[in-house]
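Good morning,

Both structures are done.
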Amino acid sequence: MTSQTTQNFAKADQSLGHLAIQIPGATAIFRKLKLDFCCGGQQTLANACAEKGLNTNQVLSEIQALEHHELPPLTSTSIELIDHILARYHEVHRQQLPELIRMARRVEAVHREHPQVPTGLADQLETMQEELLEHMAKEEAILFPLLKLGQHPMAVNPIGMMRLEHINHGAQLEKLAELTTQHQPPSGACNTWQALYAGTARLNEDLIEHIHLENNYLFPQFEPSAQTSHCV
């Protein structure tokens, strides 16, 4: 398996800007609570919460909940692995893509005159969201229930289809990397732009790990070669 990403461990004495950039998804929480992470990004989370009359610990807990990097043990049963994929990846993709699209639209509009503005990024993310939602819905409604039944002969064809769609997801990630200059914001980029690229980098990492777990650990257990290999 690929190595786990180092956790950021959000703290109340860190600035809103730092948290927005380092923890993808934090921007959605800040927007909901009307905490200014862009122009007011130098303020600490604790001070910002105090000014708004918010419970700092509750807000911090919400942010820390985004720092999910756990990987299942290699000894996990297929059912445990499926449940992990649903919670760690399917639900996370559903949360992260709408916020990334929103930030991309803003960056493209506000910085449209910048030579490195990622024109077309929001459209690319919307395409990825549409394809991922459809893909995950098929897994949840058809494939995963079959796999939870055990060595079901009807599972082989859906697995083949999911593998083909995974190839397309990989191609979409390559386009994403091109649009974001490998997820590296330009010098002097605002907090929103930096948070956007931190989020696209996390999406890239999450989707690669998601596909890896399915292709190399889950699916082989239900294919003809399952008894001889766990890799493809």
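Second structure follows.
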Amino acid sequence: MNKYCCLIAALLLFATSLSAQQVTLTKDQIVAMTSEWKGERLADGRPKVPDDHLERLKNISIEEAWGIMRNKGYHNQFEGDWMIMDNEKPMTGRALTVQYMPARADYHEMIMAKGKAENRIGNFNSWPIDMLKPGDIYVADSYGKIVDGTLIGDNLGNSIYAKSKNGVIFYGSVRDEEGLSKIDGFNMWVKGYDPSYIQGMMLGGINVPIRIGRATVLPGDAVLAKKGGVIFIPAHLLADLLINAEFIALRDQFGHQRLREGKFTPGQIDQRWTDEIKNDFLKWLDANPDKIPMSRAELDAYMKDRTW
């Protein structure tokens, strides 16, 4: 089954889930939707990209990640123009996606009844928090609602950080910004702050495909949030993206150093490298093992297949 058939199947399963009154997609539905991922999965079915990959991702620039995904045919994975609590600290994690919608009485009553039957506690905006695991990021589309669209305050923020050791990305708003700023380690990318309480909204679904501005996000996407914006990376692309971006960064470090030293000219560095430059680069790697973010075996295997 090709990826387009898998996507159609997943969407059909999603439609079926709504008629069956599910709050979240099932594990099988999430696996079908993210079928190109072949690695470990979380209990709910989301891809579990390795923790060390998420840590390495913090050092990748938005531009590098964006460019690599564009070359892979993924053109709708970035959203910018955020209010950020601490824009000096990047955040990476696995997306737990949530869809919110303007309230409609019949659907709202149905989803609340289903939540009660599933023993979900509290208001619907706390249900995703109960599902968070370490390394998750609560990613929510609340359709840009600011006034009366505040998904969390400092109480829920404390719970989010306790469960995920991460923060949130909301295409909407939060309240209690001062209290949230006191949660050590917590960070957030949101569209606004407001003192109002959430009202006139309802839950559409958890771990479903969502839209964050100009980006499409699936459950388990790897998230890279930085000062310049947020990139949502399909899990199956992350390993390749990392090694490509890290190699480009190594080339740039080497090239910049040699240009400062006057050993090579800009014309030599900017064109396809000669054997002289390649051999010098390999010696530079041997002399600077601390600059290599991946294992040397991984790097050597990558360079063996590279055309330079």
